[in-house]
Amino acid sequence: MTQPCLDCGACCATYRVSFYFGETDDHLHGVVPEHVTIPISPYLVAMRGTENTPVRCVALAGEVGKGVSCDIYAQRSTTCREFDAYSEACHRARQHHGLPQLPPL
Ligand code: SF4
Ligand code: SF4
């Protein structure tokens, strides 16, 4: 999480966070703890808590919009690593939680 993310967490409580099942730690080279994921298709898993509504990733600690952290930060999926703060999807997630758009960099 980048600096603005530490006071946010909106994306972790808005979107289904899915990724290739080979990223879980029951596969060679996988790092995401398997027990915090759930299968959603033959080749995809999702972070538990993001497969249904209301969405909230089980690894998200804290209060959205106040102060958050990721319990598996070093082991998070590529989907999480590639999600960009300041992107349109970021703006939409923040809006969904009643948070203002991040100011331009
Ligand atoms: S919605 Fe944007 S600012 Fe908030 S945690 Fe996600 S990337 Fe960071
Ligand atoms: S694993 Fe961490 S960064 Fe990814 S959605 Fe869950 S709380 Fe957010």
UniProtKB/TrEMBL annotation:
It comes from Pigmentiphaga aceris. This is YkgJ family cysteine cluster protein. Pfam families: CxxCxxCC. InterPro entries: Puta_zinc/iron-chelating_dom (IPR005358).
